[in-house]
Amino acid sequence: MDDPRVHPLLTEQARKNQATRDHWRRFAPHRQRVTARLIDSIPPGSATPHLAILGAGNCNDLELAELRQWFATIDLLDGDCRSVLQGIERQGLASDPSIRAGGPIDLSGMAETTSTWSPNHPAGDEVIDAAIAATNDSCSLPIQPVDVIASVCLLSQILDQLAAAVGQAHPRFLDLVQHVRRSHFRRLIGHLRPGGTGLFISDVVSSDTAPQIVSANDLALPVVLRECIENGDFFTGLNPAVVHSLLTTDPLIAEVKMIPPWLWDLGSRVYAVYATRFRRRSLS
Questions:
Q1: What residues pair up with 52 in beta bridges, in sequence order?
Q2: Is the pLDDT score of 104 beyond 90?
Q3: pTM of the prediction?
Q4: Going by DSSP bridges, is the β-strand pair 253-265/270-280 parallel, antiparallel, or unpaired?
């Protein structure tokens, strides 16, 4: 259900969802990869697994009917609930009570605060410190702990919104990026059952700055992507090696696995996408 206190703050998210609403066919290879990785993430022995997706958008990167064969319950969370509901309906599953749209939800934890910021009127240290403190208390989602939770190309959008609000030249910009990234993973981990699996999927570079990725096949893409990262050509805050390090040093995480990258064709540009799977420690 749309909440007028929140929804106006997330209009940019809705605009992006609207722009890709009719890209179902174009998204097919990306959708197949995402769907397969989600199914692969089901913990052994889960009889009625519960899946939560953060950043479901218009559901063009999710084969909901296939996922429903494997998951007893699917929660689709986004800042733009209307697009999620329309996406479920376009896939013919609006009558399935086990597929639930949740939102609008500020999945960044900072949308309301940063909506008043501008690079032309830089936020001061006290304002930024207060925003960070507030985010530390806003990691709860309206779901019970789940067997599988996934962030699907969401963190890059959150960091884009942060850059637009504060400006990349701001002396505290990297502090904010690191804080938002930590909060994002804390939210994912915190909503996993013990032994549950998290899946972080993110775009990391586009053909705008790395046109060579467009012609890279599955075998060549990891090499091309590694060269991009070594040259500093990647989206701020989304270096796969840094994400891997954050997860492997988290005491709640028992296992981390990097998944080979793939390409995501949005028409106007192509993105290189990677995934990292991690498991929350069991109670023992």
A1: 75, 149
A2: no
A3: 0.93
A4: antiparallel
